[in-house]
Write a structure and sequence with these properties.
- There is one protein chain.
- By secondary structure, the protein is an alpha/beta fold.
- It has one domain: TIM Barrel.
- Helices cover 45% and strands 10% of the residues.
- It has an eight-stranded parallel beta sheet.
- Helix 3 packs parallel to helix 4, helix 4 packs parallel to helix 5 and helix 11 crosses helix 12.
- The chain is globular, with a radius of gyration of 19 Å.
- The protein starts with 9 loop residues before the first helix and ends in a 6-residue tail after the last helix.
- The N terminus is likely disordered.
Length: 333
């Protein structure tokens, strides 16, 4: 296991200054955003995978185990359900029940739990039901994809309504052609918007302008699989949203970078990248790490490309071998 040293180096000072700016922004939003009630929106916030039983029922035991896995691994946050979770394949009843399982499992833990509230068909009333349900059951924040085929004003109206539905911090997930101007406008008009998960256009080219124009009041999270994490750390992204399988290693990459130990951060991220080239690991890693069951199934995930072929028994054995031989010393969970 790699220990993180609290070194006073320029990169870490910049990170702490940025964190303080976000905390101040939260405090200005009113009593619901005091530092005693809001967990920091910083670090790894993986997008939860959604496990199903062989007869296509939501597996609540595995969903709870996924949250416990993040808590054991020192992962700061967990988001469900978004694109990588297959949110659009689930019924409203499944989503409400799944959220209750997640929030119950994470109660008292350090991992912040963020619940997705977007609805199929841009149903605002349904989204508000999800938001209120999340607040009632102890979520730390809510997140929403933008409404489909909406212009800028429609998006502003939508996010204002979602933000006003609860006192929870709101994470806006950008997509498509959502401009920096729109992100800034949302941040100005929605007091509890604390974060943007930026996946519109080229996030690496946009972050500097977003941070400058919002005066770092909102945290900027990286998505798209966090495949360019070193760039993202260098440019000042506050959070990172891969899938959960190696979230503890991703978090160590961020810890090392912020401690000024950049060569070690580079090596840690290299281990992640090397493992992710192994065929079938994406479907099997949660089983191999003891979180999901051998019988766990998944529904096709719209928006994530082609459905990966399940690994053979021989490939599963190789994935377990690679975890034990190359990554076990660095795994926290």
């Amino acid at each position: 296991m790699v220990d993180t040293l609290d070194l006073e180096r320029p990169a870490r000072r910049a990170f702490l200054q940025s964190s303080a700016a976000v905390a101040v922004g939260l405090g200005l939003a009113g009593p619901a955003f005091s530092q005693t009630t809001v967990k920091p929106m910083r670090g790894l916030f993986p997008i939860g995978q959604t496990p199903f039983t062989p007869d296509n029922r939501l597996d609540h035991d595995c969903l709870a185990a996924e949250v416990n896995f993040c808590n054991r691994g020192g992962v700061p946050g967990f988001i469900w359900p978004q694109i990588a979770s297959g949110w659009s394949t689930m019924s409203e009843a499944e989503r409400l029940a799944g959220a209750e399982t997640i929030l119950s499992a994470g109660k008292g833990g350090k991992t912040s739990l963020v619940i997705g509230v977007q609805a199929v068909g841009n149903d605002l009333a349904e989204s508000i039901r999800y938001a209120k349900h999340a607040a009632q059951h102890g979520a730390d924040a809510i997140v929403s994809l933008p409404p489909e085929k909406a212009d800028d004003q429609a998006m502003i109206d939508y996010y204002k309504a979602i933000g006003a539905a609860t006192d929870l911090p709101l994470v806006v997930q950008s997509q498509g052609n959502m401009s920096v101007d729109l992100i800034v406008s949302l941040a100005q008009q929605i007091p509890n918007m604390t974060c943007v998960k930026d996946e519109a256009g080229d996030p690496l080219a946009r972050i500097g302008e977003i941070r400058a124009r919002t005066k770092d009041r909102i945290a900027v999270f990286a998505g798209k699989g966090v495949r360019t994490m070193l760039d993202e750390l260098h440019l000042g992204f506050a959070g990172f949203c891969p899938t959960p399988g190696l979230a503890d290693l991703f978090q160590q990459t961020a810890d090392l970078w912020q401690a000024g130990r950049r060569r070690e951060a580079y090596d840690m991220f290299g281990r992640i990248q090397a493992f992710e080239t192994i065929a079938g690991q994406g479907q099997y890693i949660m089983v191999a790490r003891g979180v999901f069951k051998d019988t766990t199934t998944y529904r096709p995930t719209p928006g994530m490309g082609g459905h990966e072929t399940p690994p053979s028994e021989a490939q599963k054995a190789f994935i377990r071998q690679a975890l034990n031989e190359f990554l076990k010393p660095y795994m926290r969970a």
